[in-house]
Amino acid sequence: MRFFSLFFVFFMSLDLSASEKEKILRLEATVEQLSIQLAEKSLENKRLTAALKEAMESSRRGERVTLGCDLDLLAKNYAFYGHNSITSFLKKSGEKCTKTQLITISKSYSYMSPDARRLLEYYKSL
Coiled-coil stretches, from where to where (predicted)? Predict the structure, then answer.
């Protein structure tokens, strides 16, 4: 009987430590998930801060305020998809770009399709 009671106490202590280990694993997973969410929100905050800064600078220069012309996205798409990405970018976001941004696009990308050049000139003329 004494052996049984010792075995029972030992078994209960194993179960308790397994439960604690499970709690620790859940807490570690939660911390990891929250760290990922924090990194995503920090990145979004930096992007929004940069967009707001650009909008304020555009406003000071007397240009229209735009937030939808992401030149970094254009650069990434250009690196992956090539010159056709310029045309699709201008179709989606060209009217949201400032003249300064459009000039930057025309200077940064020497080769682009005739459609992209026409769209670029059209949006510059607005």
Answer: 17-58
**Entry pTM:** 0.48
Cα separation, 93 vs 77, whole angstroms: 13
CA pair distance 98, 65, nearest whole angstrom? 8
pLDDT tops 70 at residue 76: yes
Domain span holding position 2: 1-63
Q: What's the confidence (pLDDT) of residue 33?
A: 93
Which of 31, 47, 63 is the last residue before a domain boundary? Answer: 63
Q: Which of 40, 63, 86 is the last residue of a domain?
A: 63
Proportion of the chain in helix, strand, coil states, percent, rounded to 5: 85, 0, 15
Average pLDDT (68-92) is 85
Closest to 76 (Cα-Cα) out of 92, 67, 89: 89
CA distance 25 to 1: 36
